[in-house]
Amino acid sequence: MYDNNKKNHFRRSPRPKTNAEDIMYGIQPIFEALEAGKQFEKLFIQRDSSNESVAAIHKMANKAGIVVSRVPQEKLQRITSKNHQGVIGFVPAIDYVDPQNVIATAYEEGKVPLVLVLDRVTDVRNFGAIARTAECAGVDLIVIPKKGSAQIGSDAVRTSAGALNHIPVARVDNLTQTVIEIQEAGLQLVSCTEKGSKDVYYIDLEGPTAIIMGSEEDGINSELIHISDKLAKIPMTGKVSSLNVGVAAGIIIFEANRQRMMNA
């Protein structure tokens, strides 16, 4: 949407749309947060900083697997004009969970686990819409990779209509290994892909199931396809041969729900 005031159309170096709750800044707050095991999406550190405490923060972040970017001071100033002391941390809008704990809890509560695995879904709006659908359908867990996935900030939470405040999300270093562990926990792996030979409506989704959805650009990683128990396709009769990943996820999630309710 354009501002009615035309002089605002051509501002140079606009300040990024970052909400106050999405960032943490200052040496001591970030140092203490890292020591306490606080999760960060990423850290920005001033490129020419020689501060020993900043160097210690960089080392701690690397050890914790947090992405660190060396950026010019001007970039930090555009994010916040407050005294950042050369370091800004981007705080996730939600707390991530251990996937094995969530699945174990579902079993303990007598539920039939339904997990959604998103392989490199990078569009925030798609991710938010999928999370909303998953929460409405009672999905127990969403699993995403740390690298190559949509950033879950306040925009994603808003797009999900708040669903991300309610549905557990696991963000993992190695998606393939995590999926194998989910399979070993007794869940069948069902990849939703055009490579499938069987329509989703003819695949049994009543038992413990992890549904895998891939990116719109590349689909599901070949490693995940290879270890899947079943490949499901969504039948289409139109001239366009593919669906938006959010729409496709909704179809298969609610098909799983339909089967479970019909045979409850």
TrEMBL record:
Any one Gene Ontology MF annotation carried by this entry is: RNA binding
Biological-process GO terms, alphabetical: methylation; RNA processing
Top-level taxon:
Bacteria
Name of the gene = rlmB
Recorded hits in InterPro entries, A to Z, give: Alpha/beta_knot_MTases (IPR029028), Ribosomal_eL30-like_sf (IPR029064), rRNA_MeTrfase_TrmH (IPR004441), SpoU_MeTrfase (IPR001537), SpoU_subst-bd (IPR013123), tRNA_m1G_MTases_N (IPR029026)
**Is Transmembrane there in the keyword field?**
no
UniProt keyword list:
Methyltransferase, Transferase
* Keyword Methyltransferase part of the UniProt annotation: yes
- The name under which this protein is listed is 23S rRNA (Guanosine(2251)-2'-O)-methyltransferase RlmB
Q: Where is the RNA 2-O ribose methyltransferase substrate binding domain?
A: 23-97
Q: Which organism is it from?
A: Flammeovirga yaeyamensis
Q: Check the UniProt entry and state the signal peptide residues, or none.
A: none
The record's annotation in PANTHER family points to:
23S RRNA (GUANOSINE-2'-O-)-METHYLTRANSFERASE RLMB
Gene Ontology annotations for the cellular component aspect, listed alphabetically: cytosol
